[in-house]
Structure formats: structure tokens, C-alpha cells
Amino acid sequence: MNEFFSNAERAEVLAQALPYIRKYNGKTVVIKYGGNAMVNEDLKREVMKDIVLCRLIGIRVVLVHGGGPEISDLMDRVGKTPSFVDGLRVTDEETMDIVQMALSGKVNKTLVNLIELTGGKSVGVSGVDARLIEARPKDERLGCVGEITKINPGVVSDLLENNYIPVISTVGCDREGRIYNINGDTAAAFIAGALGADRLIMMTDVAGILMKKDDPSTLIPEISVAEAATLREKGIIAGGMIPKVECCVKAIEKGVKKVVIMDGRVPHSILMELLTDEGAGTMVTA
């Protein structure tokens, strides 16, 4: 035993988790792991452990990741200054090369390696592989930034059937082979819908939707799509939370049962969400 829990207490925790294990066994859960939630290596390893645990108890986990900070860091190394339009990164051809190196290279393979080191089975894919994410230009001002036209989830389904944890980097392509930078939250929503996921978990760097900005004690535990629209009209959902909630609504519209926005910096937040009554963050439902 350790200084905090006796063996009996550990056994009781596992027994209490049994109904949730039964509930999610065989269900698909898509987890969006945001670049701003990947704050340090220790926490990243703990998140991967939780994901492996979920897979071992029968949850079909798909990990979709971002990597904005890594992209910015690599751009800085090569002396390229990022530019943004309406909060979206402008992606010219050179920047698109950097995006692929950061997302489909460093970030993707780091996460795959951590999952494997933790005892899981994982394969990293990009949205280009098997034409998983088909896209078209979103706005000519943004260059190689794409909006999704179609998800072809066959490669992800095959990996899940063979007990792998797919780790997906969010770049896509069109029929002519041009590569696009895809917003990670949007990609996660579309992929979750295409897979018929039971739940989409959006891990970010905030606790969830707050009634009062910067006051975690005012966390709203659950809202409907209609209530989300009302909160946006009132200015409670504002700034960077607007596109996240829009992605939640999009996922619900595409058939995902429940979507959760939560703080990925909190240790074991995934387990708290899936294996306890209280959950974590804000749940958005139809």
C-alpha cells in the first residue's frame, strides 16, 4: 500500500467503477487532446496512461490531437513569424510543411510512443492516410487552411477492431492531393460523428463553461444545445469558447450522444469523466 490508500480502499474504488466500466465497454469515445492542454511531459504521460486504462477495460478510444504551440515553436526556429486572420493561423505552402512536420511528425509520434511505453497498442495516422479527412479551402485569405467535406473512417474502424488506439493528426487533403491544415476541434467533432461515438471529450486549458469568466467555482456542469445558444447571446460563452461550443453542437448534430469540455491539465480528468458520477467539466447534450 502507499501512504494514502489501503488495499481495501483501492478495491472499493474499483468496485464502485464497475457500473461505468460496464456502461462504456465496447463504446467508442473520441478524445481531442489540445495543444494547450499538453503542458508538460509528466502530465502527458499520465493522460496516456488513462487512455490505455480505458482501452484495457473495453472502451474503444480514438485520440485526435492538436499542436498549435509546437507549430509556433518550429516556425520560430526557422525564423518564420505566424500570422492570423480572425483567430485562424494563415498557412502558406511553407507553413503547411511546418504544420505537417509538427503535427504528423513530432507530436503524433510522441503520443504514440508514450502509449506504447505505457503498455497500449497504438498507430499514428494523419487525415491524409486513407483519405481519412477530405477537405477544401476554407478562405483564400488563410491559404492552406481547409474545411472538412467528408470523413472516411474505415482506417480508424479497422484499427479499433484490432484493439489499437488510433492517434490522429489533423491535416487533410482534397481530391487533387493538396494538403490542408484542419482545426483540431472541428476534426474531432466530424470524426466522432462518422464513428457514431458515444462521447466526445474535448481536453483544453479551461475547466469548462463558466458563468463568470476566470471563476472555476461557477462551472456549469451540463447544458443543452438550446441553452448553449442562450448563453452565447448573453455573452457568457464568448471569445475562444465560442468555436469550441460550436464544435460540440456540430458533434451532437452528427449523432454523438454527449460532448464534454474539460480541463486536460487536471490529473485523471478522463477517468473522472467516464468512471464517476460527478464527471468533469461541462457536458453538452442534445
Describe this structure in words.
With 286 residues, this protein is an alpha/beta fold. The chain has a single domain (24-205, 241-285), classed as Carbamate kinase (3-Layer(aba) Sandwich), CATH 3.40.1160. 41% of the residues lie in helices and 22% in strands. It has nine helices and 14 strands. The protein has helices spanning 7-24, 41-56, 68-77, 93-117, 154-161, 184-195, 225-233, 241-253, 269-275; strands at 28-33, 60-65, 84-85, 88-89, 122-126, 133-137, 146-151, 165-169, 171-173, 179-181, 199-204, 222-224, 258-263, 282-285. The strands form four sheets. An eight-stranded mixed β-sheet has the order 5-8-2-1-11-13-14-12, with helices on both faces. Strands 3-4 form a two-stranded antiparallel ribbon. A two-stranded antiparallel sheet has the order 6-7. The N and C termini lie far apart (44 Å). The relative contact order is 0.15.
